[in-house]
Write a structure and sequence with these properties.
Number of helices of chain B: 19
Order of helices and strands of chain A: HHHEEHEHEHEHHHEHHEEHHHEEH
Largest sheet of chain A: 6 strands, mixed
Keywords (chain B): Cytoplasm, tRNA processing
Number of strands of chain B: 8
Strand content of chain A: 5-15%
Shape of chain A: globular
Radius of gyration of chain A: 22 Å
GO molecular function (chain B): nucleotidyltransferase activity; sulfurtransferase activity; tRNA binding
Largest interface: A-B, 70 and 73 residues
GO biological process, one term (chain B): protein urmylation
Helix content of chain A: 40-55%
Organism (chain B): Equus asinus
Order of helices and strands of chain B: HEEHEHEHHEHHHEHHEEHHHHHHHHH
Radius of gyration of chain B: 26 Å
Oligomer: heterodimer
Number of strands of chain A: 10
Number of helices of chain A: 15
Structural class of chain B: alpha/beta
InterPro entries (chain B): CTU2 (IPR019407), Rossmann-like_a/b/a_fold (IPR014729)
Chain lengths: ~425, ~525
């Protein structure tokens, strides 16, 4: 059933296939084909470049727009193959991973089966668990929530949506509207936790203002990532959850490992790569059921199930270092389609020296959360912000804090994507 | 750079404005000489201090690791490029110093002519070869020039790992050095050196002219046209440049290994510089070789057992190498490689190289950060299951196979089977189609106790490869153009593994897959089988 065309993506007539390839290429290396702004290949400034890399959601939109007309259309020269699973419907896409041609329904079924297998084989969500889904309104968390809802009866779990409001004007409020619509449609209880309430009035906009102005990069993503994980934990406790799930997909994991090597973060490399954290020391166990699904498949699933999600990127995203890793990953994927899974495979099998591994976690002296040092990272960051020295907890030595520890900027909580553009 | 442990800062704005190298600036080391080169971020060195710094780094890397014993035969892998030329030059200079600081091993040079793989014309190859021979004669070590076509004559034993006794301890190294020095002293007193390397008090090592520096087995005759044709057919049949480069790397390694074993060299030195190793590390990550990073980029690589590959240039950045070669006129030969003039997006190697160098421009500590992280990698399986007996090794890269447990994240669905048509479609709905396709293939091999070689030689070869090599093999539509030694070794190994299965034993010392009816769970990919205890390595 494999047609000689062989490449991944949506199956269709040759003419529009060229379009789709270029569209996908645009999605992958958005620089030169984007409608916005100046030519990025010459410019070095991160902002233009990363805005153009633009989050995969915009790419997802492009992919969707271009894939809609490519659904089965008859072409006498090259008839679209039949679905490899049901052999009845015409194939609508070719799976990026295996190259099999599947129709929409079979693909969705396969996707759900794979997520089910991930959860069951890894024993991630035992029956009777109350699962808090970190919902941001983006494609990953939307797909995650939908799939888990479909699988909930089989797994015996109940779901709660937890959304985090970081206080980023113009971005998060729009995303939250999407989350509320989803909660209404699926009839799942939704809890919104806001930074302003949890962290003494510090919204991300306030943090950005506070860290700006020294001529350096603002490191907003550092704050946001740490605080969001804390907020998610708080929200999960509020709803009485026993597990937390987030929508990180395979591309996120691949970017993380690339980024950690480029930054030299041996501690995170030693910790990462697994399927989640078991939740030591009182923290709730977390997992990432979509970890093995590549981003393309998540987008395609959202398309075939006609899910409604929010697809803009965060206003602070262009400054993140993760943008470099993301760009590299897009290039690698163009050169070799299995690059994402190869990276995930590599990440799982890294062997780091025992000295590079982070110390066993204890409890934060202030808030009691999981911490590798006397103060957990969230408390340390907030401490710095409150003292008017926002960079106190970032960088070597953490001078000025009332604890002495090894000068490593390790995250106390189990953080799979430390410098993430907010996870979708 | 957004580096762990450092302030988040754009380095350009943070440094003091760069001082113009005017008359006032002096070498940072001796504070007297006029600086000629800037190393790292702003350290200006004068010519002599730079030379001393460079040489010191080379000696320090060798001395710190204490792997090269005195009197040992070491093969220098020279490609003609700047890094390996610099390495050869360092060895040459190191051997000619006063006795106390002299390097104490016996070098030889091997040079592989890869023109056929790169598609060069015979005239171009001959020209390059002539230039190389000129330099080799100047250097004066025993040299071996081998054409890549000779892979077609390699024996299958080149793919076997001959287990060595464990690396000697520190005490043994010291004892070896002491005994060597004593020997030297005795010989010096007698006034006669019967082996050229023990001659003392000479400025230049002189090889006795009775020793033919050329490899008697591969004299000047060029490889036959048939072999050249076969090699170009092999490389033309590979679909992507990435896979070509990996294949070339594997063949080159095997050839060097063979030369080393034939002539009794126990160590091979390659000229990988810091920049190249950082790029190689990131490339290996992207190729799925995360389990073997320590072997691929560490100082010593002892996966072949008796021959250890050593990388003494690993702390020199490409910039330092280039400046040294320029300032001190180190001869090198430019040979076009597979990816010369290839566009940036042609292969993963090129992509990664371009990316790292571009990032290095923006954040000058990128390469050194990656290098430092690579030093923290250890040569062990991730879970530290050192108690398990050594498993089977990959056919091509000779690392312990990293496709193992069923519940590893990528075992599921990631192994896209090569012959989907061969496998039965999945009947139970809960299992996903991808993984049962993989299962089906394994089922075909071990479920029915039929020798798989009769069914599908390609599947048998694929099963003996590690994850990274498997992904590369996908770009090779047919295994026939491969050199015969690879296929022969694959057949041999699969026969060895088949025997216990045919006899019905359910599993080996590694708790391998049961040969009985398959449950619907995932199987390991059929590699943890009972192996003949006689299998080396």
């Amino acid at each position: 059933m494999t047609s000689p065309r062989g490449s991944q993506g949506v199956v269709g007539p040759a003419r529009t296939r060229a379009l789709s390839t270029s569209g996908r290429a645009a999605a992958q290396a958005p620089g030169s084909r984007r409608r916005l702004g100046p030519e990025p290949s010459g410019s070095r400034s991160p902002s233009t470049r990363f805005r153009l890399f633009s989050s995969l959601d915009r790419a997802a939109c492009v992919l969707l727009r271009r894939s809609l007309p490519l659904l089965p259309r008859s072409d006498p020269a090259m008839p679209a193959p039949q679905c490899a699973t049901c052999h009845k419907a015409r194939a609508a896409l070719r799976r990026p991973r295996s190259g099999r041609a599947l129709c929409g329904a079979c693909f969705c079924a396969a996707f759900e089966a794979e997520v089910l297998h991930t959860v069951v084989a890894g024993r991630l969500l035992p029956p009777g668990a109350v699962v808090a889904v970190g919902a941001s309104g983006g494609k990953d968390s939307t797909v995650l929530a939908h799939v888990l809802q479909v699988l909930a009866p089989r797994l015996g779990i109940s779901l709660r949506l937890v959304a985090v409001d970081e206080g980023i004007g113009g971005y998060r409020d729009a995303a939250l509207a999407a989350v509320r619509r989803q909660a209404a449609r699926w009839e799942l209880p939704l809890t919104v936790v806001a930074y302003a309430d949890l962290f003494g009035g510090w919204t991300m906009d306030a943090v950005a203002r506070s860290t700006a102005g020294s001529g350096r990069s603002r490191a907003c993503c550092t704050f946001c990532g740490v605080l969001r994980r804390r907020a998610l934990e708080e929200g999960a406790r509020l709803v009485g959850a026993t597990h937390i799930v987030t929508g990180h997909n395979a591309d996120d994991m691949a970017e993380t490992v690339l980024m950690n090597f480029l930054r030299g973060d041996a501690a995170r490399l030693a910790r990462g790569g697994g399927l989640g954290s078991p939740g030591e020391g009182g923290a709730l166990p977390r997992c990432r059921p979509l970890q093995l699904a590549s981003q393309k498949e998540v987008v395609l699933y959202a398309h075939f199930r006609r899910l409604d999600y929010f697809s803009e990127e965060c206003v602070y995203a262009p400054e993140a270092f993760r943008g470099h890793a993301r760009h590299l990953l897009k290039l690698l994927e163009a050169a070799r389609p299995s690059a994402v899974l190869d990276l995930v495979h590599s990440a799982e099998r890294l062997a780091l020296a025992p000295a590079a591994r982070p110390p066993a976690p204890g409890a934060c002296s202030r808030c009691g959360a999981l911490a590798s040092r006397a103060l957990c990272q969230a408390c340390a960051l907030l401490d710095g912000l409150n003292r008017g020295r926002p960079r106190l907890a970032i960088g070597k030595g953490r001078r000025g804090l009332d604890e002495a520890g090894p000068p490593r900027d390790g995250e106390p909580e189990r953080a799979p994507a430390p410098e993430a553009v907010p996870a979708f | 750079m957004c580096q762990v442990g450092e302030d988040y800062a754009e380095p350009a704005s943070e440094e003091p404005p760069p001082r113009q190298p005017g008359r006032e600036q002096k070498c940072v080391k001796c504070k007297e000489g006029l600086p000629v080169v800037v190393i790292r971020a702003g350290d200006a060195f004068c010519r002599d201090c730079f030379k001393a710094f460079y040489i010191h780094k080379f000696r320090a890397v060798l001395g710190k690791n204490r792997l090269i014993f005195p009197g040992e035969k070491v093969l220098l892998a020279w490609s003609g490029g700047p890094s390996s030329s610099s390495m050869v030059w360092q060895v040459l200079e190191g051997l000619s110093r006063e006795s106390a600081k002299r390097l104490r091993f016996v070098p030889g040079i091997v040079c592989i002519d890869e023109g056929a793989a790169c598609g060069l014309s015979p005239e171009a190859r001959a020209k390059t070869l002539a230039e190389m021979k000129l330099i080799l004669q100047t250097v004066g070590f025993p040299w071996h020039v081998v054409a890549l076509e000779e892979v077609f004559d390699l024996p299958p034993s080149v793919l076997r790992c001959f287990a060595q006794e464990p690396v000697e301890t520190e005490g043994a190294y010291k004892a070896a050095v002491d005994s060597f020095l004593q020997q030297q002293h005795v010989l010096g007193a007698e006034g006669a050196g019967d082996s050229p390397s023990l001659a003392q008090g000479e400025e230049q090592l002189s090889w006795p002219c009775t020793q033919d520096p050329q490899n008697p087995q591969s004299p000047d005759r060029p490889p036959t046209a048939a072999q050249t044709e076969a090699l170009s057919r092999l490389f033309d049949s590979v679909k992507t440049l990435t896979a070509k480069e990996e294949l070339l790397q594997a063949l080159r390694t095997h050839l060097i290994l063979h030369v080393a074993r034939t002539h009794g060299y126990s160590k091979v030195m390659t000229g990988d510089s810091c920049t190249r190793l950082a790029i190689k590390l990131m490339t290996s990550l992207a190729l799925g070789r995360g389990a073997f990073l320590a072997w691929d980029t560490g100082f010593s690589d002892e996966r072949h057992g008796d021959v250890v590959v050593v990388r003494p240039m690993r702390e020199h950045t490409l910039k330092e190498v280039a400046f040294y070669n320029h300032l001190f006129a180190v001869p090198s030969v430019f040979t076009p490689a597979l990816d010369t003039k290839a566009p940036e997006k042609a292969s993963i190697h090129r992509l990664m190289e371009a990316f790292m160098l571009r990032l290095q421009d923006q954040f000058p500590s990128t390469v050194s950060t990656v290098y430092r992280t690579s030093e923290k990698l250890v040569k062990a399986p991730r879970d530290g299951c050192a108690a398990s007996p050594p498993g089977p090794r990959c056919l091509l890269c000779m690392c312990a196979l990293d496709i193992d447990t069923a519940d590893s994240a990528t075992a599921f669905g990631a192994q896209t089977p090569l012959h989907l048509s061969q496998t039965q479609p999945p009947t139970p709905p809960p299992t996903a189609p991808c993984c049962s396709a993989g299962m089906g293939r394994v089922q075909g091999c071990c479920g029915g106790a039929r020798p798989c070689e009769r069914e599908d030689p390609r599947a048998c070869v694929i099963e003996q490869l590690c994850y990274g090599c498997r992904v590369n093999m996908k770009d090779l539509p047919s295994l026939d153009p491969l050199p015969p030694y690879i296929l022969a070794e694959a057949r041999l190994r699969s026969q060895r593994y088949q025997r216990p299965l045919c006899s019905g034993s359910p599993g080996g010392p590694w708790g391998g897959a049961p040969a009985g009816p398959l449950p619907t769970q995932l199987l390991p990919q059929g590699l943890h089988r009972a192996a003949d205890p006689g299998v080396p390595g």
